[in-house]
Amino acid sequence: QMASQVASPSASLHTTSSSTTLSTPALSPSSPTQLSPDDLELLAKLEEQNRLLETDSKSLRSVNGSRRNSGSSLVSSSSASSNLSHLEEDSWILWGRIVNEWEDVRKKKEKQVKELVRKGIPHHFRAIVWQLLCSAQSMPIKDQYSELLKMTSPCEKLIRRDIARTYPEHDFFKEKDSLGQEVLFNVMKAYSLVDREVGYCQGSAFIVGLLLMQMPEEEAFCVFVKLMQDYRLRELFKPSMAELGLCMYQFECMIQEHLPELYVHFQSQSFHTSMYASSWFLTIFLTTFPLPIATRIFDIFMSEGLEIVFRVGLALLQMNQAELLQLDMEGMLQHFQKVIPHQFDSGPDKLIQASYQVKYNAKKMKKLRTENRLLKQRIETLEKVSISRYSEDFVLQLEKELVQARLSEAESHCALKEMQDKVLEMEKRNSSLPDEENVARLQEELIAVKLREAEALMGLKELRQQVKDLEEHWQRHLARTTGRWKDPPRKNTVNELQDELMTVRLREAETQAELKETKQRMMEMETQGQINNNHLRRAEQEVTSLQGKVQYLSAQNKGLLAQLNEAKRRQAEIECKSKEEVMAVRLREADRIAAVVELQQHIAELEIQKEEGKIQGQLNNSDSNQYIRELKDQIAELHHEVSDKILVSDHLHLLSYFKCSRSCFSSSYYSFRT
Asked: Distance from the CA of 669 to the CA of which of 70, 383, 597, 650 falls in 20 to 30 A?
């Protein structure tokens, strides 16, 4: 586990000729008596971390190297050198001293710390610095974590459902039932038990996942609790999401002030701020940018709060203003989803520098908060008062409105019936189409439709809420005015007309809500039908391409069969030739054997002559020795000739066998290759 402080201020980096290591703080013999128990515990934890770092020398040569505790790599090093540069060494030494002397540095050099955080926290210091920045290093709730895991949360099913969607491509979380998914579930479950009002909200898992990439789950839980309490995140994630609405209002006012032309373009295209900026505030850009860039922004968020989200958001709009002015609503959505996330793959420094050139007025933001609150109060007051402001002067107007309301109600009923008929017809039509199983292939086609669907659902929800509020206000109005107009007949008529008018308006609002809902269902059915048609069209294209491939392969197969038959014919010819050659070799061998037999007979005759010569040599000793030598020479020549002929015969026989074997092997290899 990472510690929040280090006991001695002498922690530094010692660079040798072979490696670079983080030294353990040197303590004087008297220092243990000067340290608190917490400091001693933190020192032991840092020494344990140093031992882990020393086991992998490469981890100290890269500021953004792999994290040994979780087994995941968040930010890859941008330097290919094997040793730390002087700048990196100075940064590590400086951060080591800051961590060691955190309390004094935070009080006396707060601006310098902010500047260092903006430049980026070294990867191996990030866990401890985050805890120090939010003061989460010694929280009592940490001791309750193990007990919370034993309890049951009502949000467990929702958390399990969204676990696989959190960093689906990251090695630490992508495997089902992996360590990463399990610890993420534990932290989200524990917080849902601590904060029953918020419970679990989509988007918070990305923040917890980033914390788990840096530190163990108990410390990540404490940091997340601090973020929810002190960084406005809890207000953002409340069911009412009132704080998110305030952030959207403040951000929209900033756009109107700094980018008026773009603001007018957004208004003309009905491109609301929440359609692209809500995820920026809920996840601190973790779902917008790649992790290396989002982590740098999160460093600054830990130091300065939500201000960095406003700055980065407005900087993004300034840098993309020219492109956005040329696009419609769907084009702008595509630009925010596909173009902007990859604009800073080379590094986040350009974006961070641009964000701090944005003018951010904290006083004006507080003023906008007050204006937003007053505006909401005024709207609520107007809604409460508007129903009670009828008088006798508007009786004729009420009668006209009543007639018009009845006509519009009849028209709405007709339109609703037509829509219902169309929906039934489209449901029948879609029931005959094949089901879509591979939804992932059609996600790009559904983006625009889903956004329109979400907008329509929001409008429908607001309309229903207005109907509900209108009914409540009307009931209160009736309760207040029950005994007001009993005697005068004129007032009774007005009261009846008002009652009837409000009833018709309520029915009309309900009918409009039903009509809007029916239109929404019709839009969904049309979308599903379009998806199915696209799927069928793609299937037909695939079938056509497969048929072409089958025809091509059939023609290729015919050609290969013809080649195979030709190869078999050639093999048969080669075998015939080989047999003929073998027969010829055997005939020549038989001739040579007959010649050898003749030579052997000749040798035998010479042997006989030799014996006879010996007998004659006994009679004539002077000529016998010479005669014997001549006979021996002749016998040796004959033996030599016989051995040569036998050797030649064997060579010819082997050569013939080799030719036959080679031809058979060639034909077999050709057949196998074909």
From this structure: 650
Residue pair 129/121 in contact by the 8 Å Cβ criterion: yes
Q: Which candidate, 386, 368, 387, places its Cα nearest to that of 378?
A: 386
* Strands, E assignment, 449-537: none
Q: Which of 652, 633, 655, 634 is nearest to 644 (CA)?
A: 652
Instruction: Pick the closest to residue 11 from 45, 34, 37, 36 (CA basis).
Output: 45
Please report how many Cα atoms fall inside a 13 Å half-sphere around the Cα of residue 144, on the Cβ side: 13
State the helix-helix crossing angle for 204-212 and 217-230, rounded to 10 degrees. 140
Q: How many CB atoms lie within 10 A of CB 147?
A: 10
**Cα separation values, 139 from 42, 131, 191, 224, 332, Å:** 15, 10, 14, 12, 44
Residue 164's closest CA among 182, 191, 187, 186? Answer: 182
390 or 7: which carries more pLDDT confidence? 390
DSSP SS3 for 330: helix
pTM (predicted TM-score): 0.49
CA trace torsion 579, 585, 589, 590 (10° rounding): 50
Among 498, 244, 288, which Cα is nearest to 393's? 498
560 neighbors 672 (Cβ within 8 angstroms):
no
Task: Please give the pLDDT value at position 4.
Answer: 34
